[in-house]
Amino acid sequence: MRKEIYPEPRRTSSDLYVLTLSMLKVGGGWGKSLTDPTMKSDCFKRVLALNPHHKGARAMLDGSPVIVAESSTTSTSQPLTETSTPSDHPGSSPRSKAASPRVGIVAGIALGLVTGGLLLAALLLSGALDKAASSLSIALTGSTAPSEGFGPVITLPSTWTPTATLTPAPPTRTPTITVITKTYEQRLIDAKSDIEIAESLTTQGKFAEAVLAWDSVLRVLPEYGEGYYQRARVSLELMGNQRVHSEYRALLDQAYQDIDMAIALSPVVNGDHFYTRFQILDRLAAEEVFTINQTQIWLLALENLQRSLALGNTVPFSEQSLPFAFAALGEGRKGLSETERLIRARGPSAPPSCTLITALAENYEVTEQFSEALRRIDGIVDDCPTARALRDRAWILYNLGRLVEARAQLNEMIEKEPDYGGWRYYLRALISYDQGKFDEAQSDLAVGESQTWYREGIYAYLVGRFALADGDKEGAIELLRYAEATLGIIGTGPFGRRIVRELAALGASPYEITPQVIIPSTPMPTLQPTITPRPLSASSASTPPGTRLVNMTTGIGPQLLRPDDFLALRFQASSRLSFDTIESLTVYLITSSPQGIPTLQVSPWNPKDGGSGLVDSPVWGANPVRNPEMYLTSDGDFFLEIHNWGQKAIQFDNIGIILVVRQKDGTRATYGLGEN
Question: 3-state class of 333 per DSSP?
Answer without folding.
Answer: helix
